[in-house]
# Entry
Amino acid sequence: MAKILVTGGTGYIGSHTVVELQNSGHEVVIIDNLSNSNIEVLNGIEKISGIRPAFENIDCVDYVSMDKMFEKHQNIKAIIHFAASKAVGESVQKPLAYYRNNLVSLINLLQLMPIHHIENIVFSSSCTVYGQPDQLPVTENAPIKPALSPYGNTKQIGEEIIRDTIHANPNHYQSIILRYFNPIGAHPTAEIGELPNGIPNNLLPFVTQTAIGLRKQLQVFGNNYNTPDGSAVRDYIHVVDLAKAHVLAVERMLMNKTKNTVEIFNLGTGRGLSVLEIINTFEKVTGVKVPYRIVDRREGDIEKVWAEPGYANSELGWVAHETVEETLRSAWAWELKLAEKGKHE
Ligand code: WQD
# Structure
């Protein structure tokens, strides 16, 4: 049982992780500036776990407020750092906003950790650091490719900042860097889920919003890739499976089971699915049609990527359990819940 700080804890992956931490008996403090999430998420968390986490509306970029927060919430044992901007397209339009937000927040945390006697940090990274891998499935040792967007670059630079900081101060820090593949789905209770702002960029929210009639038609970006059906392939992973990996990562550091001061794990299923397979499976498990048309490839998209999760399986003791059918069902249940609550008006 430990006190864990979760930055971005009202966000999509953050909120699911808070629930899993609570389910494992940990005490959670959330900080979030609500820039891309809603305070009502706390109600959803409380409904599931029975516990309302401590919450502070703070921007991680604000060093002084962060320092005060650590003074107030003593005895934090580990940080899980989700808080970041994540829209790839927006990052191309507003690179400085992305570099400032995603990098200054991380630098602030790393500077404040030794001051407040916190050694452990889990960092949210992304399979985007691999670009189009030369070999599939992609392992953690695959080379890092030049980032295709400022967003992707903030994840690469974030990893480097952590590595350099720990290299210089190996006695003060340890970190687990988690490279997420494509998280989708929602909590099985449908009390929390993804809340996209405006028109979704990611596939699954666009699928569910089209299925419910909020969007007229889904665009499938490309059908001439070198893949079995021509549409692009990703490793889609249930967000609850992903959340559970964070609990294991934190506990691994707290129990001194790490092999290095910086460890990196891929979080994926090891299974690649195409856009068309996702649409077809969604239609099959929900019985709802998703109108779609094929359009040109989206700029900057990777053709195919899926994880080799073997290292996370054996070292972290973590496996993605959920089937894609169950995962898509959970995404649909959440969309229906949003409609029921009138969140679509
Ligand atoms: C998945 C597939 C699209 C929308 C990006 C970031 C990554 C991560 C998640 C953080 C692709 C296709 C999508 C649509 C489509 N970051 N698609 N029609 O691009 O794998 O990863 O988001 O949040 O770092 O790079 O995810 O969900 O956008 O796309 O055909 O309307 O679905 O072309 O093949 P992606 P995605």
